[in-house]
Amino acid sequence: MTMTALPTDKKSDGEADETPKSSKKKTLIIALVVLLALGGGAWQFFLKPAPSEPAPGEVLPLTAIQVNLAGGHYLRIGLALQLVEGAEEADGSKALDAAIEIFSGQKVSTVTDPEERDKLKDELTEAVREAYHEEVLEVYYTDFVTQ
């Protein structure tokens, strides 16, 4: 009686060694890709220099105006605009209009309180930056008198 070998599902020794190597290689490649992505993200958030503030340019003084306050009082306010370097000579009418809009009708106690005055100045600065498309860095008071 002769015995014949039956086919088995087992792979030869060479094939069995290739599967783990190939799996390890894929895992290593995936790990490297993930590390590169994380490294790029870390560079973007931590190491990339932040955009710098525009350089200050010319200071544009504006003529003082009188604004009506609540209770028959008034405020004489003078402003100066700190422009960014290279900005065109700006017409101050938009800034004066924003000042009239923000300060008109305010109580004397509001405009004389230092904290409230700073809040109003921040509001004015934001309105002026919007009106001049970010060509104004800062708004300064040059005259501030209530009566």
From TrEMBL:
One Pfam family here: FliL
Gene Ontology cellular-component terms listed: bacterial-type flagellum basal body; plasma membrane
Mode of membrane association: Single-pass membrane protein
Primary subcellular site in the record, as a coarse category: membrane
The keyword Cell membrane appears for this protein: yes
Basic and acidic residues bias locations: 8-20
Region (Disordered): 1-20
Gene Ontology biological process terms, A to Z: bacterial-type flagellum-dependent swarming motility; chemotaxis
Membrane-spanning segments: 28-46
Compartments, as annotated in UniProt: Cell membrane
Membrane found in the keyword field: yes
Keywords tagged on the record: Cell membrane, Cell projection, Chemotaxis, Cilium, Flagellar rotation, Flagellum, Membrane, Transmembrane, Transmembrane helix
Similarity section: Belongs to the FliL family.
Free-text function comment from the UniProt entry: Controls the rotational direction of flagella during chemotaxis.
Protein name: Flagellar protein FliL
Organism for this UniProt entry: Nocardioides daedukensis
